[in-house]
């Protein structure tokens, strides 16, 4: 119950609806916090008989007494409904009072009605290239997860928005981690999207405030796995008998030497390869995730891979540079590739981009600012994360080297035994 809201009841003549007999309908206006709701009271009067200052019919009208008595009755009824609503709702709107007075039972918006409206908004953004397909699919996945959760928690297919409280998102996060075996950071990303949907509900005035506002989306420091140069070389040299594995290896290597994420690499076509300012071949294309341009000069290995698939049936049919499978199949095949190459790391679409940032760029002394541009980062702090990873790896490698050399008694004797102390 909001004790600070303003409330008023007035009557006015709706002259736009004056009938052919010159009679104008009297309308009721309910105002709460400067927002209005209006409706006719089904009484008519000539405009000359209306007292605008007092919202009454002048005594010059023969029906003045009966109409004014009726207006008093309407006023008292509206006030009665307003007071009842104050005891049952946290927030009362002018439309709430009008509907209650008229006996109209308002249909409350549900959680999935709001979700569907938000998805339609995303479709509109996607059509004007303001949203990537991957981002849209992420919300579709979230929708399915929410349907499973609502059925589990509420034992029904949908829930009124008013019933969605803070415990909804708290329990939803636990539900995803328990049911889907989801990692902490992934669950938090979905929770963040869910908060955005409820914020949209506030914008549409379906709910007075976002019940998830106080939920903190925290993130744990993720381990960014990448391949070293020896592992990259092993991948490149490996000869595969199975065609699909050879194709997946090549697509993965392409990302390792260009930094393109799966969705961006899969979308590349021949027209994206152009001559740069140096006369060499470059790929110039917007990155879907951040809508930033990634201008990447093509190193020899990705050029070799592009040439290999120039006449591939899939590439020719779909006007693509690479024969890339669905993300799910791609990651599954990468596990086979890693096993056959003796690589014990978990190869995914993400590790290729991490490899480009670390092993290909920063380990080879490419400046941080250049790496930022090549990776399409909007904030150099994101790129600096890779720099710290490289420094830590160099430090660990040097410690191992120091230990090996310190254990070499012959070398220690030759240099006086003082170098590694």
CATH topology of the largest domain: hpI Integrase, Chain A
The percent of residues in helical segments reads: 40-55%
Give average pLDDT, whole number.
Answer: 85
Q: Radius of gyration over alpha carbons?
A: 34 Å
Please give the alpha-carbon distance between the first and last residues: 74 Å
Outline the biggest β-sheet: 3 strands, antiparallel
Strand content: 5-15%
**Based on helices, strands and strand pairing, what is the structural class?**
mainly alpha
CATH-assigned homologous superfamily of the largest domain = Intergrase catalytic core
Give the uncertain stretches in residue-range form.
411-421
What would your notes on this structure say?
The chain has helices spanning 64-88, 94-102, 111-127, 133-154, 166-179, 184-203, 229-237, 243-256, 262-267, 300-308, 313-318, 327-341, 349-361, 368-375, 380-406, 409-414; strands at 7-13, 23-32, 35-46, 50-51, 56-57, 273-275, 281-287, 292-297. It has a 3-stranded antiparallel beta sheet. A 3-stranded antiparallel beta sheet has the order 6-7-8. The model is unreliable at 411-421 (pLDDT under 50). It starts with 6 loop residues before the first strand and ends in a 7-residue tail after the last helix. 52% of the residues lie in helices and 12% in strands. The protein has 16 helices and 8 strands. α3 runs antiparallel to α4 (133-154), α8 runs antiparallel to α10 (300-308) and α8 (243-256) packs across α12. The chain is elongated, with a radius of gyration of 34 Å. The protein has 3 domains: 7-102, no CATH class; 111-203; 229-402, Orthogonal Bundle (hpI Integrase, Chain A), CATH 1.10.443. The chain is mainly alpha-helical and 421 residues long.
